[in-house]
Amino acid sequence: MPEQPIGEIPPLDGSLPASAGTGNGQGLSLYVHVPYCRVRCGYCDFNTYTADELGPGANREDYREMISRELDLSTRVLAEVGAGDREVGTIFFGGGTPTLLPAEVLAGVMDDIRARYRLSPDVEVTTEANPDTLNPAYLDTLASAGFTRISVGMQSAVPHVLATLDRTHDPAKIPDVARWVKATGLELSLDLIYGTPGESIADWRASLDSALAADVDHVSAYSLIVEPGTKMGAMVRRGQLPMPDEDDLADKYEIADAAMTAAGLRWYEVSNWSKTPETRCEHNMAYWRNADWWGFGPGAHSHIGGVRFWNAKHPRAWSDRLLGGDSPAIGREVLSESTREIERIMLAARIDSELPLDSLAPGSEAAIRTFVKQGLLDAEAVAEGRFSPTLQGRLMADHMVRVLTDYVH
Fold this sequence. Notes:
- It is built from 15 helices and twelve strands.
- The protein is of the alpha/beta class.
- The protein has two domains: 18-288, TIM Barrel, CATH 3.20.20; 336-409, no CATH class.
- The strands form two sheets. The chain has a nine-stranded mixed sheet, sandwiched between helices. A three-stranded antiparallel sheet has the order 10-11-12, with no helix packed on it.
- The relative contact order is 0.14.
- It is found in: Cytoplasm.
- Belongs to the anaerobic coproporphyrinogen-III oxidase family. HemW subfamily.
- Probably acts as a heme chaperone, transferring heme to an unknown acceptor. Binds one molecule of heme per monomer, possibly covalently. Binds 1 [4Fe-4S] cluster. The cluster is coordinated with 3 cysteines and an exchangeable S-adenosyl-L-methionine.
């Protein structure tokens, strides 16, 4: 797992600087981290734990109570900076595997959130899910509790690719899961990974075909990143698996975009496609817009009014702090204006037409003209003052960001 950032030590009561209340009047998003997994996948460096790693206070049975304590803390801290009545527009349960918890527990956490926060009438509520944890009754409970989206970790439709990723679900179950989700009235998002060692172009096309054969509203497709501290990272280092090839990744991205477009899904962020603007993941849009969110659970990160803070990573350390009446936050950073501007550009440049050209630093005009000449930006969009990467531009998004942020002082 990655190391947590190094920052200043926050107050034990979790209080924020008065400046953090300056975002009041804007919406608020909530992220709920569920750290439990049945097995830890070889490529994953998320903050996850299997059942036999955790004891009382940190286990699934005590999870709702601990989250409830953190919810109480969050509402107190926000009220202290004059931001206690902010409307919540999106809620996202991520992991780990949130759906390893009984559906009634996830529904109960939603009840606890409603008891403390004012939710938007059209609040978006998403949970990530592994296919093998879902059934119609489980989904019915989530829908009744106010969930609106299910983000299913499909990853691949090819058994040998799933085996390399240490994924345990049966890909043949995906059509059933998709049908159950849609029958319940929930939006369906599927997550795919491309570039797994041993995955051929034909394998990738098969995964895309399988995903798009479902009545899918949204697809996320991410290139595999081999992290050093993972099982897969160790296997690559020992030469047991090859590193993903950059040209192969680019080819597979182009294949994905063509398949999505043919199926009626349009890209709106470099790695995300949606059937309509209404089926975008608004929670992730909040992240990319550098909006405010509060993260609950072990290792969760938050951003409130230019203050970033993060919780103790291990569930035992997280729960011990809450049981002792303290904030679980162990570090924070008050972002400078230049850092906030750099992050705004980094995030907005990944979204179609989300970065107004007149908001860029002086001197950026020459870079924009160069990007158009290189075929990285859509010329018509630029003429209208919009930053809209072409297909090639999406593959070169990091390069464009590096150039544009050089103008920020």
